[in-house]
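tokens incoming
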């Protein structure tokens, strides 16, 4: 009987030792609300609307903004489409994906003279500067 109790005690100590060597359980981070891509796109979309559309900037008079920030695909974006054909083919796509705050800009307008301005505006807004004009 004494030998059996000793064996059980030894087995219990070995079990506790092994259990203490185990890594702590991995926990999945609790979503804190908005993804990095959505936060980045909100910042850029608000500035783009203010600076390009609401200000009635002549360079963007022929376009209107189609906002698609509420994307369930993890790709919040906005489009510039022809002002007189809202359902038309997008001429500019500004989007971010997943949990990245990197904003991608592409479409036919990027190959036009306006493309350089669009690129610098989006880069400035993404960096946190909401101004409509580049610093002189």
């Amino acid at each position: 009987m004494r030998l059996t109790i000793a064996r059980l005690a030894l087995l219990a100590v070995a079990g506790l030792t092994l259990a203490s060597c185990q890594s702590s359980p991995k926990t999945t981070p609790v979503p804190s609300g908005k993804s990095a891509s959505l936060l980045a796109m909100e910042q850029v979309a608000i500035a783009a609307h203010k600076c390009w559309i609401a200000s009635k900037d002549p360079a963007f008079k022929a376009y209107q903004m189609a906002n698609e920030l509420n994307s369930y695909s993890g790709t919040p974006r906005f489009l510039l489409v022809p002002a007189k054909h809202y359902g038309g083919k997008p001429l500019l796509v500004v989007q971010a994906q997943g949990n990245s705050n990197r904003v991608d800009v592409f479409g036919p307008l990027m190959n036009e003279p306006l493309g350089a301005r669009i690129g610098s505006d989006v880069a400035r807004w993404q960096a946190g500067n909401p101004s409509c004009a580049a610093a002189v």
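note: The beta strands are 63-68, 77-82, 92-96, 103-106.
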